[in-house]
Amino acid sequence: MSETRVLDVDEQGRLLIAVSDADHTRLVEVDAEDGRRELAGVPGFASARYLPGERKAVVQHGAPAQLSLLRVGGKLTHLVGADDHDTELLGVLPGRVVYRTNRKHRLLYSVVIRNVLVGEEQAVYDRGGAVVAAAVSPNSRYIAIRLPRKLVLVDTMPVTEDDHVRLISPEPATRGRADLSWLPDSSRLVATEYDADSARVVRFDVTSASWHPAIVSLDPSARSWTAPDGRRTAVATGSELAFYQADNGRHLRAADLDGAITDFRWSPDSLTLAVNTTAGIAVVAADTAAVRQVTVH
């Protein structure tokens, strides 16, 4: 039996979907009118994201992991990676890919931003450690990097070298802060903060280097992501997807889905969310909480 999961949503509301059967995965695109398009078969598939503003996707696949570029309607072409180290996708920016690699040492990772068009690269973090997650600010100046025991801020235009990598906070081995994203003005980092019996959405102000609560008293299983425009935050708990006003934490509306929510992603225009559940794929409208089920054959 095949398994489907939505990977990303683009500026036109098209969904990038992986359909996996045994050890083979094919990528499928579904548009806003439920039109379907087969893109490519990808052995050893791991993840993929649309390249913002382009009809291309960045695909992670293989072992060791490597990255390839898939042009919609075209073929999969090698982008970066080699047979002696892992190259793993962390994020995408217009014309650029953010990845982690252990090409210097098997257990020590660097974070690199690569210009897809010309191939130029910048190693923005090269101090080792098992990089768990990274989020690049919209203006590309700051990168928040979660390591197993700490959260650090990388400044790509520091006043002094000492400002290049700063400790945001020590983190516990489990739980702590996750789901990292940035507000559109690049001045504040947003995260879901977990403790033993609750969760909350918090913001880190870069200028004051301080955390502030945004949405409190959430279930300890909750996950949250703030929309790209910074206006609303979506919180998933079980099968419920709730929307909150991001600046004051006011509850706006909620949608009940057929299955437990496993992952979700905002559209670039902040109007919809593509959601994976244990029952399948759904698209939820942020303004109304209306739910549209998506079926892929």
Quick summary:
With 297 residues, the chain is mainly β. The protein contains no helices and 28 strands.
Features:
297 residues; Neuraminidase; 4-stranded antiparallel β-sheet; globular
Task: Describe the SSE topology.
Elements: E1 3-9, E2 15-21, E3 24-30, E4 36-43, E5 45-50, E6 56-61, E7 66-71, E8 76-80, E9 87-93, E10 96-105, E11 108-115, E12 121-125, E13 133-136, E14 142-146, E15 150-155, E16 165-170, E17 176-182, E18 188-194, E19 199-205, E20 210-218, E21 223-226, E22 232-237, E23 240-245, E24 251-256, E25 261-266, E26 272-277, E27 280-285, E28 291-294
Antiparallel strand pairs: 1-2, 2-3, 3-4, 5-6, 6-7, 7-8, 9-10, 10-11, 11-12, 13-14, 14-15, 15-16, 17-18, 18-19, 19-20, 21-22, 22-23, 23-24, 25-26, 26-27, 27-28
Textual characterization of the structure:
There is one protein chain. This protein starts with a strand and ends with a strand. The radius of gyration is 19 Å and the shape is globular. It has no helices and 28 strands. The protein is mainly beta and 297 residues long. Strands 1-2-3-4 form a four-stranded antiparallel β-sheet, with no helix packed on it. Strands 5-6-7-8 form a four-stranded antiparallel β-sheet, with no helix packed on it. Strands 9-10-11-12 form a four-stranded antiparallel β-sheet, with no helix packed on it. It has a domain at 1-131: 6 Propeller (Neuraminidase).
Fraction of residues in H or I helices: under 10%
Distance between the termini: 11 Å
Instruction: Give the number of DSSP strands.
Output: 28
The helix/strand series, from N terminus to C terminus, equals EEEEEEEEEEEEEEEEEEEEEEEEEEEE
CATH topology of the domain at 1-131: Neuraminidase
